[in-house]
Amino acid sequence: MNDTVPQGSKRAARRWYRRIALGLFTLFAASVMYVTNELTTQRYTETISNRSELRLALYSANLMSELQRNSVVPQLLARDPELISALNSQDYSRSTARLMSFVDEIGAAALTLLDSEGRAVAATNRNELGVNHSDRPYFVDALRSNRTVYSTFRMDTGAYAFIFSRKIESNGQVLGTIMVEVDVGRMERGWAGVTDAVFVTDAQGKIIMSTEPLWRGLQERDALARQPASSAIERALRATQSWAMAPAEAYLRGEAVLRREARVPHQGWQIVNFTTYDSVREKVNGILALQVMGFAIILAVSFWVMSRQTASRLVLFQRESAELRALNRRLQREIAERERVEKTLQVAEQTIAQSSKLAALGEMSAAVSHELNQPLAAMKTYLAGARLLLQRQRPDEALSSFQRIDDLLERMGAITRQLKSYARKGSDAFEPVDTRAAVSTALAMMEPQLKTRSVNIVRTLPTEPVMIMGDRLRLEQVIINLLRNALDATKTSDNPTIEILLAVGDTVSLQIRDNGEGIENLDELFEPFYTTKQPGDGVGLGLAISSGIVNDLGGRLTARNAADGGAIFEVQLPAYMLGQAAAE
């Protein structure tokens, strides 16, 4: 008894010594990793900064070279005898070919010849022929000046056009104007291939060239605000960015980036380059990973040494294990007796299960047959169109039809793959889905049927994404089934119209309304195999399948007759908010 207390005190003291040693070792490892992270991050960040500044200087020089090269072209073409002769004689039959012979050698985006009234009489872009440019600044300013004039304006596509123009004179008389459009798109594509984001701003700070098309026409602050961190993970990365990286100068797509700018010696332009810290992160993390591995090996060896001291306790565990094995043998004997009693019940259960499987297989086969009907009908239409296009020697358009057939085959494969998901319940495969995109895809799937009839489609969709948590393919199946029913319901209407209304609040509401004859029996509408169509036109599974899909998505599908005629089908689903994603 007297030896027990000192031995217990020694064991307790040893445990405390081990804990203190482990704490000191952890503190030392954390300090080493912190110092290593700071030093390596600073070193690699300086390297990236130097590379970014060098890349900006190269971009600026290339841009100025392109502008200067194109600025000389109008002066040369304004003296071209053939162009002057064409303007004098108003015979432009060879002018377009003349310009096209220059455009590849010059490297310009487009060359256009305007007469004295601003009408395009020759152009490398044949869509511009006959277009009047009399109110454009590059035409008006060129007539007023004896030099080459530079103009910038924003086109309908959102991109900016950079044009050098100069008037053409003969014997003191103004005959027209030659304009050269700089091919900035080629430079933007070259920038996008080697860097993260590059843009050029004018003297007012407005973005006029960018590898991100959505940034054109915006200020830098507004452009970056258009791509905020859209998930909780990205916001967490922003919050912890300073733990492993240098302080961020800007954020692009939720990631910290290094910002560098340089002056372009042309009308007060600035060029800005964003570079992510991905390479820094990879190199720093590689060094830290080696340190973590070394510390882990040291800890593993220490734990192995300490574990040897616990070998004596295994004897007690082995005794308890022997008692548990004896108890297990008794339990096995009892289980064997119960299994013999339950064998008779299993025979009856197997018979019932087989009957249930056959019934479920029948319903599943009918459902898949109904869902594959729509893509097959669309494929038949595209094949007929492709055959006609091939007969008319239009293979490029026929390839487009074959591409659509390939997309339909992919969709049919996705529908058959859903057989695996029918056997389980829950939302394991759900993801955020934009309902507007599902509506657009469903309308594209229905395009062959819509083209065969003159149906007025009225869409009212929000400008912002309408997000739900669900399966996009199954949601598209619901919309296609509702659109197909609406299309069949308007066969007898004088002015067939289908209205699609999408609204969002606490819930997402999608209404599909037609001006047909309405619904006679609302009570049995969603029952399987109930249909009002002629034999061969449908099996009555569309609405039943759609109702089941909507229920799986956590919503409800309802139908009612409109007061002024027709039917209204409404899908209500829980709305999915960004705040909800952060909370999850």
Automatic annotation (TrEMBL):
EC number: 2.7.13.3
This protein's record includes keyword Oxidoreductase: no
Key words, A-Z: ATP-binding, Cell inner membrane, Cell membrane, Coiled coil, Kinase, Membrane, Nucleotide-binding, Phosphoprotein, Transferase, Transmembrane, Transmembrane helix, Two-component regulatory system
GO cellular component: plasma membrane
UniProt domain Histidine kinase: residue ranges: 367-577
Keyword Cytoplasm: no
Record-level Gene Ontology MF annotations: ATP binding; phosphorelay sensor kinase activity
Primary location group: membrane
Catalysed reactions, semicolon-separated: ATP + protein L-histidine = ADP + protein N-phospho-L-histidine
Transmembrane segments annotated in the record for this chain: 16-35, 286-306
PROSITE patterns listed in its UniProt record: HIS_KIN (PS50109)
CDD domains documented for this protein: HisKA
Location relative to the cell: Cell inner membrane
Membrane-topology annotation of the record: Multi-pass membrane protein
Stretches assigned to coiled coil: 314-358
Its biological purpose: Member of the two-component regulatory system DctB/DctD involved in the transport of C4-dicarboxylates. DctB functions as a membrane-associated protein kinase that phosphorylates DctD in response to environmental signals.
Name listed for the protein in its UniProt record: C4-dicarboxylate transport sensor protein DctB
UniProt source species: Yoonia vestfoldensis SKA53
